[in-house]
Write a structure and sequence with these properties.
With about 290 residues, this protein is mainly alpha-helical. The protein has helices at about 1-10, 25-50, 55-80, 85-105, 110-135, 170-190, 195-210, 230-245, 255-270, 275-290; strands spanning about 15-20, 25, 140-145, 165, 220-225, 225. Helix 3 (about 55-80) packs across helix 4 (about 85-105) and helix 4 packs antiparallel against helix 5 (about 110-135). The longest helix is centred in the first third of the chain and has 26 residues, at about 55-80.
């Protein structure tokens, strides 16, 4: 009896808008703004601890904002609507920020350590926003959260109204907040440059690969039974291990262990006999909605 009540309590905080000062503010945007407002001071605090340039960090922050805006515009032009994908944003920000830091004559890794901690915090807040509006939703689950008809205005599928869905968004939000916290501690302990970045990249890759199996937003694309995010997780973990082997990034034994686990899981999914994940999700959604 306790589990449904937990779901009901969580359901009470969902909604497409939040009322502030008599105005209805989109919940997802509000969560994003809160994440940004928390992330920027945190990243600058970590820069201060490392005695780095505020101007260079400001350039990184500006680049991050510009990347998100440009990607939103491009996806709107291509798909007719915004297609905000967290993993794409993170990778693009890291590439653009690295280029800017090199152009400024700064070593990128210390700044990227500070930046990735803030980006993780933004992602955690963003996933809370996803939970509130019902995007990036989980599979039907008896202990989950049911969204109402009002959520359909934000793109929530009408056939899932009233269906209890596992709150995978909150699971990912917790994971992101946790690895951001550990990343901040690594910077504060003055670990080698790139340690926090490598930790975040490998830890998030492992978590995100697993979280994808809990999701049931069927509009996403799969290739060889793996989602875009799962392929990205595999590539990111592989890149970190490869960079560590070349001496470009601090390497830890568990980085290779995570990569091996992801590779094994990918092989099992691609060549296994089980149906594709999107087909499984489609059947579970139809059963729950019927």
């Amino acid at each position: 009896m306790s589990s449904p009540r937990i779901g009901d309590r969580l359901q009470a905080v969902t909604g497409t808008h939040v009322w502030l000062a008599g105005r209805a503010v989109p919940a997802y945007q509000l969560c994003g703004y809160i994440g940004f407002a928390l992330a920027v001071p945190l990243s600058f605090a970590l820069v201060t601890v490392q005695h780095l340039s505020y101007a260079a960090m400001a350039a990184v922050v500006a680049a991050a904002v510009l990347v998100v805006i440009v990607q939103a515009i491009v996806t709107t032009l291509v798909h007719g609507e915004e297609d905000l994908v967290y993993y794409r944003h993170v990778l693009a920000i890291m590439v653009v920020a690295s280029g800017i830091l090199w152009a400024l004559g700064e070593a990128p890794l210390p700044y990227l350590d500070a930046a990735i901690v803030g980006i993780g915090l933004v992602g955690a807040c963003g996933r809370v926003g996803c939970f509130m509006v019902g995007c990036c939703r989980g599979r039907p689950h008896g202990r989950g959260v049911a969204y109402g008809a009002s959520h359909t205005t934000a793109g929530f599928p009408a056939h899932l109204v009233g269906v209890r869905l596992f709150p995978v968004q909150l699971v990912e939000a917790t994971w992101l907040a946790g690895i951001a916290l550990v990343g901040a501690v690594l910077v504060l302990r003055h670990e080698a440059a790139g340690t926090a970045l490598a930790f975040w990249a490998v830890a998030y890759a492992g978590g995100r690969f697993v979280f994808e199996s809990m999701r049931a937003d069927l509009e996403r694309h799969y290739v060889w039974r793996l989602s875009e995010a799962q392929w990205t997780s595999l590539a990111v973990a592989g890149a970190m291990v490869g960079a560590g082997a070349l001496g470009w990034m601090p390497v830890r034994w568990w980085h290779a262990a995570v990569l091996a686990g992801l590779a094994g899981a990918a092989i099992a999914l691609v060549w296994g006999r089980q149906p594709a994940r999107d087909s499984e999700a489609a059947r579970s959604v139809r059963r729950a909605a019927s």
